[in-house]
TrEMBL record:
<dbReference type="GO" id="GO:0052706">
    <property type="term" value="F:L-histidine N(alpha)-methyltransferase activity"/>
</dbReference>
<dbReference type="GO" id="GO:0032259">
    <property type="term" value="P:methylation"/>
</dbReference>
<feature type="domain" description="Histidine-specific methyltransferase SAM-dependent">
    <location>
        <begin position="16"/>
        <end position="313"/>
    </location>
</feature>
<dbReference type="InterPro" id="IPR051128">
    <property type="entry name" value="EgtD_Methyltrsf_superfamily"/>
</dbReference>
<dbReference type="Pfam" id="PF10017">
    <property type="entry name" value="Methyltransf_33"/>
</dbReference>
<dbReference type="InterPro" id="IPR035094">
    <property type="entry name" value="EgtD"/>
</dbReference>
<dbReference type="InterPro" id="IPR029063">
    <property type="entry name" value="SAM-dependent_MTases_sf"/>
</dbReference>
<dbReference type="InterPro" id="IPR017804">
    <property type="entry name" value="MeTrfase_EgtD-like"/>
</dbReference>
<keyword id="KW-0808">Transferase</keyword>
<protein>
    <submittedName>
        <fullName>L-histidine N(Alpha)-methyltransferase</fullName>
        <ecNumber>2.1.1.44</ecNumber>
    </submittedName>
</protein>
<keyword id="KW-0489">Methyltransferase</keyword>
<dbReference type="InterPro" id="IPR019257">
    <property type="entry name" value="MeTrfase_dom"/>
</dbReference>
Length: 316
C-alpha cells in the first residue's frame, strides 16, 4: 500500500515575508532550508562525496559496523518515521534488519519523495509506505494513517545540528510526545573535534560547499525577486568553538545595494548574511539533551575516531 499526503504547505507570500524580514534585519540571516532548491540538493549530495566532509561517510560506517546491535536495541515491527527522508536511501538500508511494518518518509516537498518511494515499494511490497510532505521543524502533527504503535523516529545525518540547543530540546520533546509507550528515536549526531577538521569540512578545497552556499542567492532571486549578483559574494564556513557550532555566512566582497520589488538594502563590504548553523555536541552534552527531553535507556555507537555518534533512545 502506497499513499502520499501533503500537510502544512507554506504559501509563496509567507515565504517572501519570512525571507525579507531576515534579509532586512540588522544582522541579515536566512533559514538553512532555503539552501535546498533542485540545484542545492544536488550540491549537497556532492558535498557528501567530498573527502573533507566526513559526517555522511562516518555515519554510514557506524551503521555498517553496528547495524546488528542497533537493530537489536530497536526490535522489529516499528512504524519507521524518517524525518528529512530525501531519496530514502539511508532508511532503506535499515529495512532488512529492522523489518518495519510501516515506512513514513517525511520531507518538505512530497514531490521529491514520489519517485524514490515508488521504487522502494516495489522492492519491499510488504511494508506499508506513506509519504508525507511537511515542514516538521515547527510542529509534528502526523496524519491518522500513520500508525501509533511502536513509532521509531529516524533523524540521521546530524540534521539536528541546524537547531540551536534550545530548539533541539523543544524538537526532541515534540518527538517524544508523538510516541506511544513503545516509541523511540534513532538519531545521528556530529561530535566536537579538532577545529581544522571541522573548518575543512565546511570550506572544502574544490569549493563545492562555497557553491552550495552561494546558490542560496540564486534561489532567493527566484523566490523573492531580489537582484543578488553571485559574483559579489564570498563563502565563509568555520567552527565557532565558543558556541560549539559551524557557521556559514555569505560575505559582501564590495559595498552594494540589493533591490527587490518593494524595497532594497545596502550591504557594506565585509557585511554578512548568516545562512546556517550546524551545532556540534559531545556525548555528554547530547545525553543531557535527550534526558532533559525525557528519553530513557540510551544507547550510543560511534566510529574509532569518535567523530560521529548514532544514538537510540526509548520513550519509556
Ligand atoms: C544537512 C544540516 C547535516 O550541517 O553538515 C553541509 C548541511 N552545510 N555542508 C551539515 C551542510 C554545509 C549539513 N546538514
Amino acid at each position: 500500500m502506497l499513499q502520499f499526503i501533503q500537510c502544512n504547505e507554506q504559501n509563496d507570500q509567507s515565504v517572501r515575508d519570512e525571507l525579507l524580514a531576515g534579509l532586512s534585519a540588522a544582522q541579515a540571516f536566512t533559514s538553512p532550508k532555503y539552501l535546498y532548491d533542485a540545484l542545492g540538493s544536488k550540491l549537497f549530495e556532492a558535498i557528501c562525496e567530498l573527502p573533507e566532509y566526513y559526517p555522511t561517510r562516518t555515519e554510514a560506517l557506524i551503521f555498517k559496523t553496528h547495524g546488528r546491535a542497533i537493530a537489536q536495541a530497536i526490535g522489529s515491527g516499528s512504524t519507521l518515521i524518517d524525518l528529512g527522508a530525501g531519496n530514502c536511501a539511508k532508511a532503506a538500508r535499515l529495512f532488512p534488519g529492522l523489518q518495519p511494518v510501516q515506512y513514513v518518509p517525511v520531507d518538505i516537498s512530497v514531490s521529491f519523495l514520489r519517485e524514490s518511494l515508488q521504487r522502494l515499494q516495489q522492492q519491499f511490497p510488504s511494508i506499508v509506505m506513506t509519504g508525507i510532505g511537511m515542514d516538521f521543524s515547527s510542529e509534528l502533527l502526523l496524519p491518522d494513517s500513520v500508525r501509533d504503535k511502536k513509532r521509531l523516529f529516524f533523524y540521521p545525518g546530524s540534521s539536528i545540528g541546524n537547531f540551536t540547543p534550545e530548539e533541539s530540546l523543544a524538537f526532541l520533546q515534540r518527538i517524544r510526545a508523538a510516541c506511544d509507550e513503545d516509541g523511540g528515536l534513532l538519531i545521528g549526531v556530529d561530535l566536537v573535534k579538532d577545529k581544522a577538521i571541522l573548518d575543512a569540512a565546511y570550506d572544502d578545497a574544490l569549493g563545492v560547499t562555497a557553491a552550495f552556499n552561494l546558490n542560496l542567492l540564486r534561489h532567493l532571486n527566484h523566490l523573492v525577486g531580489t537582484d543578488f549578483d553571485v559574483q559579489g559574494w564570498r563563502h565563509r564556513g568555520f567552527f565557532n568553538d565558543k558556541a560549539s557550532r559551524i557557521e556559514m555566512h555569505l560575505e559582501a566582497a564590495s559595498g552594494q545595494i540589493v533591490r527587490w520589488p518593494q524595497g532594497e538594502r545596502r550591504f557594506e563590504r565585509g557585511e554578512r548574511i548568516h545562512t546556517e548553523n550546524s551545532y556540534k555536541y559531545t556525548q555528554r552534552s547530547f545525553t543531557d539533551l535527550l534526558e532533559q527531553a525525557g528519553f530513557r535507556k540510551l544507547s550510543f555507537w560511534t566510529d574509532p575516531q569518535q567523530w560521529f555518534m548514532v544514538c537510540h533512545a526509548h520513550v519509556n
